[in-house]
Amino acid sequence: MATTDDLLHFLDDDGLVAAHVEMRLEIASGALTPAYTSRTVKGACIDRQRTTAMSDPKATESFDSSDYRRALGGFGTGVALVAVRAPNGAAHGMIINSLTSVSLNPPIMLWCLARTSSVFDIYTQVEAFSLNILRSDDHDVARHYSRRGGDRVIPLDQVCTMETGAPVLAAAVASLDCRTRLRQSMGDHEVIYGDVVAYRGDPGVDALGFFRGKFVTLKSGE
Question: What does the pLDDT look like over 169-204, one tens digit per residue?
């Protein structure tokens, strides 16, 4: 069984790559003006961790990675499974929450993979992959495919294919079939971009979310 530590370390494979800033829109002189706000506990953010000069390793020697992860935990995300065809032909799955839409025209997605991941070579050598948004009741799927050192092979009866031939999770809320466009090293991760060549979805189904180290349900509203 996967442990809580396994789930919190979705981060071991993909990592959280964004922080949340609350933004409200105010009417000013007939125009929409962005007004940024922040929720703070200790005065005017005087207890903040400095993040300047992040490209310099020495600048973060005293940077508390645990506190940083907890801060990023305030950004709730969906939960997705990346599926690829392994060299032996098996469907291989990995849980991520670093999933971002880069462009609508053309449709491009990105996700991130830690270079220390045990499956790094498998996922960085494929020419196609699918991104599958998990359903709200897919807790077991999320636990299984985020387990360190666990079996990541997806049973044949749980996958299908679309355009690229990459395995697609048959029961997902939505699936995006992608061809690898670009792989880019960034910090301690590899950023993987994909061109979406086919997709499918069920907008009436609730999705699985992850917030503050716990699963949550993302309601469809339909």
Answer: 999 999 999 999 999 999 889 999 999 999 999 888
Q: Where are the domains of the chain?
A: 4-18+73-218
> Which residues have C-beta within 8 Å of that of residue 192, sequence separation ≥ 6?
110, 111, 112, 113, 123, 124, 129, 180, 182, 183, 184
Q: Distance (Å, rounded) from C-alpha 211 to C-alpha 8?
A: 10
Q: Are strands 91-96 and 128-133 parallel, antiparallel or unpaired?
A: unpaired
Kindly report the number of other CB atoms within 10 A of residue 15's CB atom: 21
Residues 7, 9, 11, 14, Cα dihedral to 10°? -70
Using CA atoms, how far apart are residues 87 and 126, in angstroms rounded to an integer? 9
Can you tell me the distance from the alpha carbon of 195 to that of 103, in angstroms, rounded to the nearest whole number? 9
Q: Is the pLDDT of residue 161 over 70?
A: yes
pLDDT exceeding 70 applies to what percent of the chain? 71
* Domain 4-18+73-218 CATH class label: mainly beta
